[in-house]
Amino acid sequence: MKSAWVILSALVVGMLLGVGVESWSPGGASASLRIVEPVGILWLNALKMTIVPLIVALLITGITATADAARAGALAARAVATFIAAIVITGAMSLLLTPLLLRLFPLSTAAADALRHGLGGVVETPASPTFADYLLSLVPTNPIAAAADTAVLPLIVFTTIFAFAITRIGPEQRASLSGLFKALGDAMLVVIGWVLALAPIGVFALGYALAVKAGFAAFGGLLHYVLIVSGVGVACVILGLILAWLVVGVAPPRFVRAMIPTLAVALSTQSSLASLPAMLDASKTLGVDPKKADIILPLAVALFRFTSTAMNLAVVVYVAWLFGIGLTPWTMAIGLAVAVAAALSSVSLPGSISFVTSIAPIAVSMGVPVAPLGLLVAVETFPDIWRTLGNVVADVAATKYAADGVADEPAGETP
Is the backbone of residue 150 left (phi > 0), alpha (psi -120 to 50) or beta? Predict the structure, then answer.
């Protein structure tokens, strides 16, 4: 939380200073831009260099971890199936809702132009490939070359096939390969942690450059972004309550009463992990067998991020809309698949780190520029509130659903 506010403060200070310098001395602002902006771009490049290894590590660890969890028994298998179904539903909802919100609440042309100019200007989009082109690009003849060329679609296809193959080999070999890619992902997280330690400097430079190029209109653009993505987060919370009512069978008033302590912890900490004890109490209040809750809820905290697919896709769709990048149904399907894998393989990390590790692979897979994430991470503090609230609501609802659908183990048997 402290780090997030420091990054946000660096953005605000950089933008205010950029607006001030541009107002007082346009010539001085242009001269300083040639010095300050490369600092921000260098920081962005350091973030981008981790994307391809992250895509590979996240896909493999996500698929293998989910398969291993499903092998733990009927209760765990039902829980994992529930998690996957729920995050696919929220991702699909986001792909429909985000463009609708952008049409209902459009950003003014001036603010959109200013924000787009400040974030890198016009992005040239290649000609739309034909269906035959898509088919031919699915299977890479050389996966290493695909990774080197950042050809994400064939890389994803190869990595997914490879990950499922890992789940079919012997336990010792599976553990070795899974551990290797888990270590690769962890190493990338360490690198990202180092890069994000410099985030106040990089975000300050990017914010300064944005304000010099776009002026005060950039503030309005960032506020619009926060409201749109937060709107998707609110929709996730509402969807979680609706599913708890219609699918799980718990009336909203009863569910909300049981969740009040959990929601208070989630709001104050913005951490699902910190909310785990309160979620255990809430599930007990809703009649879940404590033995089952002790299995499902930790699994939910580790694997289930109900809002991740929806809000991560909302960020990418927003950037695509801002830069005028058309998203075909096929492109959105690819993005949804990567978003699901990223959600299942995410770890409990500070919001600024998980923001980059989860969204950058989705953006690359959908052909959307990654550079704007360097600034958008600074305002993630506000949407992150809705991420956590939606996650804890869904964790408890999914726990009750999974627990109610599996009979108690007979005496003398172990699950």
Answer: left
- 364-392 b/e with 16+ CB inside 10 Å = b? bbbbbbbbbbbbbbbbbbebbbbbbbbbb
For 398, other C-beta atoms within 10 Å of its C-beta total 27
Least confident of 116-120, 291-295, 372-376, 394-398: 116-120
The yes-or-no verdict on residue 134 having pLDDT over 60 is no
Q: Which of 14-28, 108-122, 204-218, 360-374 has the lowest mean pLDDT?
A: 108-122
pTM metric for this prediction: 0.75
Which amino acid is located at 146 in the chain?
A
Is pLDDT of 82 > 50? yes
Euclidean distance between CA atoms 403 and 293, whole angstroms = 7
Distances (CA, A) of 404 to 133, 223, 244, 315: 47, 42, 13, 35
Half-sphere exposure in the Cβ direction for 12 (13 Å, CA): 8
- 306: which 2 tokens? 């109900």
Percent of the chain that is helix, strand, coil (3-state, to 5): 80, 0, 20
